[in-house]
Amino acid sequence: MNSSAEHSKHIPREYEIKHSKWLRKMLHAYWVVVIVHFLVQIGCYLFLKYDRAPLDFIVNVLFWPTVLAVFCILLTSYMDRKFPSCSFTTMSITSTVIAWTIIHVNYDIRIMPAICLLPIFASVLFYDSKRVWFIFSLQVAGYGLLLLDPVYRAYLSSFDMVSIPIFLILATYVAQIIVTTGIEVLDDLQTSMNAKEDLIVRNAIIAKQSKTDGLTNLYNQSSFKDYYEKAFEYANLGMSLHLALIDIDDFKVINDTYGHRVGDIILEKVSLIIQESITASDIAARYGGEEFALLMFEQSFEQAYDLVELIRQKISLMGHLELGGASITVSIGLKGYNLDLSKDKLFEDVDACLYAAKRTGKNKTVTSLVPA
């Protein structure tokens, strides 16, 4: 079996953070215990037979036990705020003082020593074996101090003297088993959580890879079609939409002359220019081969035209060492949505504009200027 220090390494950080919350809740519980004990003692004195003089009752049953308990709770609250690292120690001492004070005041009630078991089982919440044994040692110390009182000692039978330590040992043993089992469960949960997180990350990577083009990091054709269909639905509801198709001129010549590796570099550079030029709401995709598709939203036709022209000019002005310093050009087709167009018709018209640009000299943008 691993030590508690080794097990603590496997306890989730979020779980450890909750310890301070539990300490504060335990403080609130001790306030309730002290108040209830105070009221019960008054009720018993008023309505039941109570073999104590009024002054003795007020001083030794009500005043001093209550003052001691309140002082311990306030001290623990202060330590929790100022010295959080000492919170558990002060809380443990406070719970022990309150438990054995109540036992001392009510020593004639046989079942009362069972209260000292509560701090032991409360320590289980922290899943730390050392803390359980620390609480146990405090209970033994509290019991030992009470035995110094001849009145309390005289009330105990020989069986009581032996059974109380035995019950403390058995309770601590049970608490230890609970802690060990709990740590093992936490280890299993942590392993499952890590496996789940790894699976989520892998799924996210796979999902991203399934939506994007591996070379350019733009959306792939399949993703573009999904976005295009959704964009067309929004356009039918009144949103501005423009579609552009961008094709690298003479790309086959580049591949045949310089090789496919150089062709891939050119594709990467063109895609980077597109990504740097579009807005955050626009969608760019590698539609196939050397062709790119661009969806532009919430822009006028003039703004969309200026954007694709900016892309075309940037590409034409960039020299490429891979091509001996030469530049490349692109041809672009552009058209805006209108209510008379279907999804397929809009794409066909933009494709026709693209090939018109190719046929009429390349390195240009051809549009069908229909108000969006």
Residues in helix, %? 55-70%
SS-derived structural category: alpha+beta
Biggest sheet character: 5 strands, mixed
Can you count the beta strands?
5
How many alpha or pi helices? Answer: 13
- Order of helix and strand elements from N to C terminus: HHHHHHHHHEHHEEHEHE
Q: Which ranges are low-confidence, i.e. pLDDT below 50, for 5 or more consecutive residues?
A: 1-8
Description:
- By secondary structure, the chain is an alpha+beta fold.
- The protein has helices at about 5-10, 15-45, 55-80, 85-105, 115-120, 130-145, 150-155, 160-210, 220-235, 250-260, 260-275, 300-315, 345-360, and strands at about 240-250, 285-290, 290-295, 330-335, 365-370.
- It has a 5-stranded mixed β-sheet with strand order 2-3-1-4-5, with helices on both faces.
- A hairpin with a 2-residue loop joins strand 2 and strand 3 (about 290-295).
- The longest helix is centred in the middle third of the chain and has 54 residues, at about 160-210.
Keywords:
alpha+beta; five-stranded mixed beta sheet; rod-shaped; disordered N terminus; Alpha-Beta Plaits; 372 residues; 2 domains
Helix and strand layout, with pairings?
Elements lengths: L3 H5 L4 H35 L6 H29 L4 H19 L11 H6 L6 H19 L2 H6 L2 H54 L9 H16 L4 E8 L2 H8 L1 H18 L5 E6 L2 E7 L3 H17 L12 E7 L6 H17 L5 E4 L4
Parallel strand pairs: 4-5
Antiparallel strand pairs: 1-3, 1-4, 2-3
Task: Summarize this entry quickly.
The chain is of the alpha+beta class.
